[in-house]
Write a structure and sequence with these properties.
Length: 217
């Protein structure tokens, strides 16, 4: 996804091994924003860091079958929530650069998950989620370090999201193109990064970043 080379194996999501070690898109602060050094004028590619990380970020809570905490650029709201398949989401902090968002997230990861369980996400309909988010927000406001509380957003409205996926097949099975190079059947719905077939097969599109695919109808 970075250099465009044809490779036999991916490292991370769609990168070759050299790019894993050198490309800004694969730097450790992508996964752990508290490690970002863009505000110090540092990074694998300073101009890339300036464009992507030295700008306003949001810390949020979302409901994807359970409450999770996450970080994204302000310009990616609500795209990031849709990408994750969240049925409910609420911003809880706004900061001027990525590292600060990561610092807040570090505190909150002790209380909330920072990863999504895909089956729970696909089956989640939001029932009871709004109350859980409100309770989680109150907890987050109380638990965030004093030095970071000036960035908190205690009164943002909860956003509800819907997807083209109504009833679900009785059994969901995750498939990967490495093991099943051809997929055929009726596409039943889409939620977040996931395509759901009528027979219950599920494909995570993001996990196949960098693959060359052909689609026929």
């Amino acid at each position: 996804m970075s250099c465009g080379k044809r490779v036999k194996k991916f490292y991370g999501q769609g990168t070759c091994f050299p790019c894993l070690k050198s490309a800004p898109e694969a730097s450790p602060c992508i996964i752990r924003p508290e490690l970002c050094e863009a505000h110090l004028g540092l990074g694998r590619d300073v101009e890339w860091e300036k464009d992507h990380h030295l700008q306003e970020h949001i810390v949020y809570l979302s409901f994807t079958g359970g409450v999770k905490v996450g970080v994204t650029r302000s310009t990616q709201v609500p795209v990031r929530w849709i990408d994750q398949g969240a049925v409910l989401a609420v911003p809880i902090a706004r900061v001027p650069y990525r590292q600060l968002a990561g610092a807040i997230e570090v505190y909150l990861k002790r209380l909330f998950a920072d990863r999504t369980q895909w089956k729970a996400m696909i089956t989640a309909n939001g029932a009871g989620g709004e109350q859980l988010l409100e309770e989680a927000r109150n907890t987050a406001m109380a638990q965030t370090a004093e030095a970071l509380r000036e960035y908190l957003l205690p009164k943002e409205p909860v956003v509800r999201l819907s997807y083209p996926l109504t009833d679900l097949p009785p059994k969901l099975v995750n498939v990967q193109l490495d093991k099943l190079p051809e997929l055929e059947g009726r596409l039943h719905g889409i939620k977040g990064q996931y395509l759901v077939w009528a027979d219950g097969r599920v494909l995570n599109v993001r996990n196949h970043t960098g693959y060359h695919v052909e689609v026929g109808f």
